[in-house]
Amino acid sequence: MLAGTGRVPSALPMSITPTEEYSVADRNVTVHTERGYRGRSQTLKPGAYDASELKEGEDTISSVRVPDGWTVCLYEDPNFTGRSKLLTSSTDYVGDDFNNVTSSLIVADPAATEDIDVDAKSLMRLTQGFPPKYEQVMVLSFTMVGE
């Protein structure tokens, strides 16, 4: 499974003002609550982030910094459902159609080739490399008993 999903304490706050140079060496996505990379922010490593893992809550994202080659898929509803919008580069405004409506998102590194843990019972299976496409898969747990 891919390390650095929203389930571990890898989503740390980071503030960037528009006058600062954004280093892609950081290799993280940063979501902002205001246009122009302003407002409160959260830095995200590759992984799946549902509403409860967005530190500013759902329906607050207005701009997104995306490292070269990475993709971010914004979803209107929790659990990676509803309308979606794919970002393949930084955008200082996500647009009227997605401003303050994101409730879950997936951050994908182009080097990622593995599935992303969503929770103990499901994962996002990578079905296409670039742009990345995922389908949610339920994981069943069982025990085999030999006779």
Notes on the protein architecture:
This protein is mostly beta strands. It has a domain at 24-111: Crystallins (Gamma-B Crystallin, domain 1, Sandwich), CATH 2.60.20.10. Helix content is 0%, strand content 37%. It has strands at 29-34, 38-44, 47-49, 63-65, 71-77, 81-87, 104-108, 116-119, 122-128, 133-138. The strands form 3 sheets. The protein has a 4-stranded antiparallel sheet with strand order 3-7-5-6, with no helix packed on it. Strand 8 (116-119) and strand 9 form a beta hairpin. The chain is elongated and about 65 Å long. InterPro entries: Beta/gamma_crystallin (IPR001064), G_crystallin-like (IPR011024). Residues 27-68 form the Beta/gamma crystallin 'Greek key' domain. Keywords: Repeat. This is Development-specific protein S. Belongs to the beta/gamma-crystallin family.
